[in-house]
Amino acid sequence: MTASSKPNHPLPAPDSDFYLLNEILSDTERALLKRVRTFMESQVAPVINKFWAEDAFPFELIPGIRDLGIAGVGFEGYGCPGGSTLLDGFIAMELARVDSSIATFYGVHSGLAMGSIYLGGSEEQKQKWLPPMARMEKIGCFGLTEPLVGSGAGGGLLTTARREGNTWVLNGQKRWIGNAPWCDLSIIWARDVDDNQVKGFIVENKTTPGFSVEKIENKIALRVVQNGMITLDHCRVPEENRLQGDLSFRDTARVLRLTRQYVAWESVGCSMGAYEHALRYAQTREQLGKPIGSFQMVQDLLAKMLGNITASQCMVVRLAQLQDQGKLLDQHASLAKAFCTTRMRETVAWARELFGGNGIVLDYNVARFFADAEALYSYEGTREMNSLIVGKAVTGFSAFA
Predict the structure, then answer these.
(1) Domain membership flag for residue 4
(2) End-to-end CA distance of the chain, in Å?
(3) Rounded mean pLDDT of 262-285?
(4) CA–CA separation, 278 vs 39, rounded Å?
(5) What's the pLDDT at 248?
(6) Is 200 a domain residue?
(7) Which domain holds residue 185?
(8) Confidence class of residue 2 from pLDDT cuts 50, 70 and 90?
(9) Among 44, 45, 340, 390, which is least packed, fewest CB within 10 Å?
């Protein structure tokens, strides 16, 4: 910034919490969030573009994430830290504000994998698996989506489970499974050929014969997350590893209801990160002799971005309150996922637009948010599928094919 263009007052620091929603948390919760922010800004932000460009995961960051003590937030007992759904949402938002891949890695492990065991496991299974997962000594993934079955998972999985005595034989494939190429255990959902119901299984990746994973290459979004194609070729899983409380897809949906709202929070964080980078750029980038942040159309873009973020923040805060009150329904989570990811997609596009040509260069960060948003927009139920869930709830008619 030239001497002639410098303002005679300090510029406001980029802050996407415009309605001060952070203040609804307790002092203890805010202190934890501050530790998460400090870790993400000091340890993740300086290196994440390198790993994104290399399509690689920063394993050296796992001890630091473990030391934050956030794995299993929202779950009581079994070595988990407890806490509210609201706190868990703010953590997701804080992680994604710096990087959506790290937030996704955490969400798959802490939400999908640990949540499946917490909600559907027997007492013995919870005691065995959740403590090492909370300590991040064991990392999990969640195998639901298949090469030929994505949005239609509720209508029938192609992966099958056949019981032979005290053993289950699993056959099929799972695709787009985050953490799968390297993690320790997979929650695999398969259709029982005897009763045609979906059941969940804990599969130990590295010791189960017939289990293999191929890393999915050439992604343009969430490149730091390692996604895999899991192949189950006559995998033999003991009955003790079947999730004892999961007897149908309705039980699977309990997990998805929780994690769908997690993605809504994550998408808000992605929007926040893109907005804050854009605002910082607008305050320092000069054209025609002054910062572009002083131009009306740039300010209009920033105001629209902040409006999207603030509306989405208010929605997910209420969503978490409903969950903590035991009132959360599928349609509540679906509306938030559809709305927040749509607003995110719009927001990150405006952020990239504000950067002009620099917006497509990884060095300026916003390109990473712009690309990663495409994955958040698609997974945990497309906008169309979530809209139909909401539509059925408000009209009383099912429009599913």
Answers:
(1) no
(2) 57
(3) 96
(4) 22
(5) 81
(6) yes
(7) 140-241
(8) low
(9) 45
